[in-house]
Design brief:
Layout: H1 11-15, H2 18-24, H3 29-46, H4 53-65, E1 72-74, E2 78-80, H5 91-101, E3 109-110, E4 115-116, H6 124-131, E5 135-139, H7 142-154, E6 158-162, E7 168-169, E8 173-174, H8 175-181, E9 185-189, H9 197-203, E10 208-214, H10 230-240, E11 244-249, H11 267-272, E12 277-281, E13 292-296, H12 298-305, H13 309-312, H14 317-329, H15 333-339, H16 341-346, H17 350-363, E14 371-380, E15 389-396, H18 402-411, E16 416-418, E17 420-422, E18 425-428, H19 438-450
Length: 451
């Protein structure tokens, strides 16, 4: 039997094809040659060439130019979806990024004196004011903020932490491992479920440099549990002459108690309780870009700012522009709830969600037999892990494709739509979709059915 691979064309032969020659007029030759080689290699694996070599080369060129990072429509109902980039930015933040990205900026220039300035000044006053703190510093993420703070105040010495707070966060990163990289030595106190103020008191000795509280943001402890109040730990640390650090995790600045969301510590409360440094994320409940925020006393923030790690962990100009614009929205709490997407999604009423679901269902192809059903959304991002967010779901009958097959086609479509599957149906949650996304979702569903 003749091996069909012997009949495959050479690269030179493909380049002489009329349609490929047309491509060479607008596409760099090296890119076309690479695509041709890839097409031949793939055909050799399949033991047969494509029906249209020029079309195959065009598709490979298109794939190479397609960015790996692109927007998706989140129909999962998970507001802070880590895999989908966590918090969408407010319009003010998007405008700020665009303005700064389009040209040069005064990132490290004092325009008044014409001399070198500091990038840490750009969010400093707004962040400190929003947190009710004396001073503030921004780095590139929350884990970096914790490493910086511990290295600045406790390198080579011990830090007291409850055993119940030695948690693992996303991506298999564990608090003990992060602490070890800071140069501080972890000293566990108490037990997994119960830690008392006396446990910290008994563990104090001259080599202890700080007391640390880490909020258990991605799970809840219930039943026979106990933890000292932050104010009590702050008072103990003050009597011992060591700093009290509180990692509150999600960076909640707004008061969401009116909507039944009360289990997450607020940054303002942690500062008011007496923590010398409060650490949190910028891209979770705060609703800004990925960033690590440190707020607290002038002395402790200054130690962090002057630490060599601060340069390695510094935030870039786009992060600072987006965070500053987001913090400015918080100057008016009502405006923040209305204009910061995360807060707006978390505070939607059941009537608003039901109406949004009805509009969304109206855009879905009739073949999918869209129906409305009650369901639940999730906050996500390790925030409010026990919160119940009632919603109205659009349930679709995927037919012979099945919900998993339809879900796959939606993810691979343009625009990509990420949904969830439940009860043998594909589920769309309007909570996490932009108000104007219904038409785009409908078109994506039509394309998925035709693929």
């Amino acid at each position: 039997m003749t091996d069909r691979r012997r009949q495959l064309p050479s690269v030179d032969r493909l380049l002489r094809d009329a349609e490929v020659e047309t491509l060479l007029r607008t596409v760099p030759r090296a890119a076309v040659v690479t695509a041709a080689r890839e097409a031949i290699a793939a055909a050799r694996t399949r033991r047969a060439g494509p029906e249209d070599w020029a079309a195959e080369i065009r598709e490979r060129l298109s794939e190479r130019r397609r960015p790996s990072l692109h927007p998706v429509l989140n129909a999962t109902g998970v507001v802070l979806h880590t895999n989908l980039g966590r918090a969408p930015l407010a319009e003010a933040a998007i405008r700020a990024i665009t303005a700064v990205a389009a040209g040069y900026s005064n990132l490290e220039l004092d325009l008044g004196t014409g001399r070198r300035g500091s990038r840490s000044e750009h969010c400093r006053a707004l962040l400190a004011r929003a947190a009710g703190a004396e001073d503030a510093l921004v780095v590139n993420n929350a884990a970096g903020a914790l490493v910086l703070a511990l290295n600045a105040v406790a390198a080579g010495r011990e830090v007291l932490i409850s055993r119940g707070e030695l948690i693992e966060i996303g991506g298999s990163f564990r608090i003990p491992d992060i602490m070890a990289r800071s140069g501080a030595r972890l000293r566990e106190v108490g037990t997994t479920n119960r830690t008392h103020l006396d446990d910290y008191q008994r563990a104090l000795h001259p080599d202890v440099a700080a007391i640390l509280t880490v909020h258990r943001s991605n799970f809840e402890q219930r039943g026979f549990v106990a933890s000292p109040e932050p104010a009590a730990l702050a008072a103990l640390a003050a009597r011992a002459g060591v700093p009290y650090l509180h990692d509150v995790g999600s960076g909640l600045l707004a008061d969401l108690s009116l909507w039944g969301l009360t289990s997450e510590p607020r940054v303002l409360d942690a500062v008011a309780a007496g923590a010398g440094l409060v650490l949190f994320s910028g891209d979770k409940l705060l609703g800004g870009p990925q960033a690590g925020c440190l707020v607290g006393t002038n002395a402790l923030v200054a130690r962090c700012r002057g630490n060599p790690l601060a340069r390695a962990l510094r935030a870039d100009k786009l992060t600072l522009a987006a965070l500053e614009a987001t913090l400015a929205v918080y100057e008016d709490p009502a405006t923040a709830v209305r204009e910061i997407p995360v807060l707006r999604m978390l505070t939607l009423t059941q009537d608003e969600l039901a109406a949004a679901a009805a509009r969304l269902a109206g855009h879905c192809p009739s073949a999918l037999r869209a129906e409305l059903q009650p369901g639940q959304s999730a906050v996500g991002g390790g925030s409010f892990p026990g919160a119940v967010l009632p919603t109205t779901l659009v349930a679709l009958d995927a037919g012979t494709l099945g919900p998993d097959g339809l879900s796959l086609r939606l993810r691979l479509g343009d625009p990509a739509v990420v949904a969830r599957v439940g009860g043998r149906r594909l589920l769309l949650d309007p909570r996490t979709l932009p108000e104007a996304a219904g038409l785009a979702v409908g078109r994506a569903l039509e394309q998925a059915l035709q693929a």
